[in-house]
């Protein structure tokens, strides 16, 4: 019975670590750029856009399509970076359980 109690305590500790990691993820930010820094987008948490910076040189008539492409590329760059940081937080929280597929629990990277 001691083994079961120890296992339950480990599961509770891991659950707390995962909750802490999720809280950190909600506050994590990442910045993506495109066009050599002409467009910058900042993301927070699961991908919420918090800021968009556009170089004045792109604010000329006829540059709309280029600007749109640069915004999409900057967002993709920021999202990739945010996902990398969030994955690292979850792997750290999961510890030795990372990569295991335990029935009834979310996949732990």
From TrEMBL:
Q: Single GO molecular-function term?
A: DNA binding
Keywords noted in UniProt: Coiled coil, Cytoplasm, DNA-binding
Q: Which residues form a coiled coil?
A: 1-31
Q: Which Pfam families match?
A: YbaB_DNA_bd (PF02575)
Q: Name one GO cellular component term.
A: bacterial nucleoid
Entry-linked InterPro entries: YbaB-like_sf (IPR036894), YbaB/EbfC (IPR004401)
The compartments listed are:
Cytoplasm, Nucleoid
Q: Does the keyword Cytoplasm apply?
A: yes
Q: What is its main location?
A: cytoplasm
Task: Name the family the entry cites.
Answer: Belongs to the YbaB/EbfC family.
Assembly description: Homodimer.
The function of this protein is: Binds to DNA and alters its conformation. May be involved in regulation of gene expression, nucleoid organization and DNA protection.
UniProt protein name: Nucleoid-associated protein HNP32_000349
């Amino acid at each position: 019975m001691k083994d079961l109690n120890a296992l339950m305590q480990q599961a509770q500790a891991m659950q707390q670590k995962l909750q802490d990691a999720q809280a950190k993820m909600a506050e994590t930010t990442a910045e993506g750029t495109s066009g050599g820094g002409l467009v910058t987008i900042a993301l927070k948490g699961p991908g919420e856009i918090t800021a968009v910076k556009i170089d004045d040189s792109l604010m000329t008539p006829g540059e709309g399509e280029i600007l749109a492409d640069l915004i999409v590329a900057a967002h993709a760059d920021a999202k990739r970076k945010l996902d990398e940081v969030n994955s690292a937080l979850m792997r750290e929280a999961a510890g030795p359980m990372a990569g295991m597929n335990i029935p009834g629990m979310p996949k732990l990277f």
